[in-house]
Amino acid sequence: MTKSETYETTEPSEMGYAPERKPGPVCGPGDFPFAAAALDHGHIYDQCAQLIAAGGELRAVFDPDAEKVRRFREKFPVAQAADSLDRILDDPAIRLVASAAVPSERGPLGCRVMQAGKDYFTDKAPFTSLDQLEEARRVAQATGRKYAVYYGERLHTESGAFIGWLIRQGVIGKVLQVLGLGPHRLAASHRPAWFFEKAKYGGILCDIGCHQTDQFLHYTGAKDARVTHSAVANYDHPQWPELEDFGEASLVAEHGATNYFRVDWFTPDGLRTWGDGRTVILGTQGYLETRKYIDVARNAGGEHLFLVTREKERYFSVRGKIGLPYCGDLILDCLNRTEKAMTQAHAFKAAELALCAQARAERLA
User: Which residue of 89, 186, 324, 365 lies most exposed, with the fewest beta carbons within 10 A?
Assistant: First the structure.
């Protein structure tokens, strides 16, 4: 038998995959009331839907734009429209505020939420400056509240959860390198004005690069890293001079593992989804790759995982088989004051590395 004949399609359960808790409600009705505020990005719908699926009760919503609130309540009619943010912050029953504000407003809003005695769950990027990050660190420490971040390219993919399990089981040995590709479709006609203003979106490495720094830290188990190279460009969109349509960075963790990632706004219209996001992880005993959203020219669905070890090649299709455990873990962390879903240090460090890469980036012609 040749090595190529050892390829097999494997179910996650055949490798002993057994989640400690299958995703689903983790608390009873009324145990975890939460609210939504600042509806500037569509990720707020995913954030709220996952919290509800995990047992949360969406009680209120606020945005100064009444049309955004109307559309939101079409999806979540149970949410009562609040006439101000203070109405939500003053409600002692509300435990957490989920938000997808304009990126430059996420840090200040989070501090205000934590100072009101509530946990905060923001879309990425969580900050657009290191000063905002340091203030959030200070407020989180002072209040004991959580500043949770929705790093969706890992947390909103079943393959992202499965990769973490494989690595923890030692299937590919010690992780040496993480390669991340984060292409996105620009869809300029559907973007709000702030999307093209650097002071508001923070730059491409800050905005979508933080997905990659989150994955690097998580999959290598690193607590810290340094940026060794970063670059940004506006290669093909002169009509928006503040837009960065390309970015790349290299990092080294404190234990020597390395990371390279590329993010861009060049997904062509011929692709059947918004981006061909991939992660490749090299270990001492094997490597793996996830094709999160599509297997180009073969399968329009996502959640594909390829694993090569010393024994054989394996392919996993994990769509619908792993679930998305993050929001359930987050609710339990908020109720129990634990850090199972993600540590506060990790959430802040992933943001810090992306901000540092952005601040030091070479501007390419």
Answer: 365
The Cβ of residue 297 has, within 10 Å, a number of other Cβ atoms equal to 8
Per the confidence metrics, is the pTM higher than 0.90?
yes
257, 248 in Cβ contact below 8 A? no
Contact between 62 and 37 under an 8 Å Cβ cutoff? The reply is: yes
Sketch out the chain's domains with CATH numbers.
33-150 (3.40.50.720), 154-326+354-363 (3.30.360.10)
Cα 133 to Cα 15: distance, rounded to the nearest angstrom: 40
- In single-letter form, the type of residue at position 126 comes to P
- Taking residues 122-131, what's their average pLDDT? 98
Contacts of residues 267-275 at CB distance under 8 Å and 24 or more positions apart, as own/partner, are: 267/183, 267/184, 267/185, 267/186, 269/185, 271/185, 271/296, 272/300, 273/300, 273/302, 274/184, 274/185, 274/187, 275/182, 275/183, 275/184, 275/185
Q: What integer best gives the mean pLDDT of the chain?
A: 95
> Rounded to whole angstroms, how far apart are CA atoms 94 and 280?
40
The pLDDT > 90 percentage for the chain reads: 92
Whether omega for the bond prior to residue 36 falls within 30 degrees of 0, making it cis, is no
Does 262 score more than 80 pLDDT? yes
